[in-house]
Design a protein that fits this description.
- Two copies of one chain form a homodimer.
- The first copy, chain A, is globular and about 50 Å long.
- Chain A is of the alpha+beta class.
- Chain A has a six-stranded mixed sheet with strand order 2-1-6-5-4-3, covered by helices on one side.
- In chain A, strand 3 and strand 4 form a beta hairpin.
- The interface between A and B is large, with 42 and 42 residues.
Chain lengths: 129, 129
Amino acid sequence: MAGRGELTRAAVERFIDSLERRDWESWEGLLDPDVVYELPQSRERIRGRERYLQFNQEFPGDWHLELKVAIADERNGVAWFWWRVGAEEPGDAMAFFRFGDDGLITAVTDFWPEPYEPPSGREHLVERW
Amino acid sequence: MAGRGELTRAAVERFIDSLERRDWESWEGLLDPDVVYELPQSRERIRGRERYLQFNQEFPGDWHLELKVAIADERNGVAWFWWRVGAEEPGDAMAFFRFGDDGLITAVTDFWPEPYEPPSGREHLVERW
């Protein structure tokens, strides 16, 4: 029998994969009806599975997601993934998950870090790529 | 006996905690001598424990870290933490870890997402905080 951590890890994988495939039924099936989605960078919050579904269905552009790393335990999970729009350069993003007792996702918090120029003063330690 | 995932999770916790305490000996003890540290946002890379230690010791400002969530399995781990400089507003950051066979950290990749204004067109779904 699969341990609970393996089940939540599989849910993290399916979350990204079903979004990429626009398989809304599969994606929705992972979520608690009262899931709370937060974007701390813009201080935005969406309450409930239906609105969160609509948010993703309405999200503009030819967006694509590809999972890089999934880690999960009984209560928490994370997806580190690449995202890109059309033929643009891919960027890193990460989504953190909370799981309820029934294994459904009760909270999602994601982050979309932007490129920046390195501060000066550490050139003696660092290489660039 | 603790499972390997519990040991790596404890290492993730100690990573943040020892940095916060400037306990360099404890922090250094978590790292493989050939650890590779990467900052994808600035495309910077530091090779080796000694340089990485120096980078942290030389990092300017009265910086503080507080762990929010640690998740780890046999090979991968993540720390989602708050950081702040002096009395500034705290920000979210996250560090991903790879573990070698001996449990030492062989790779660290961290992200420092900045605040941004939400794009228009989703006000009907979103609340702000």
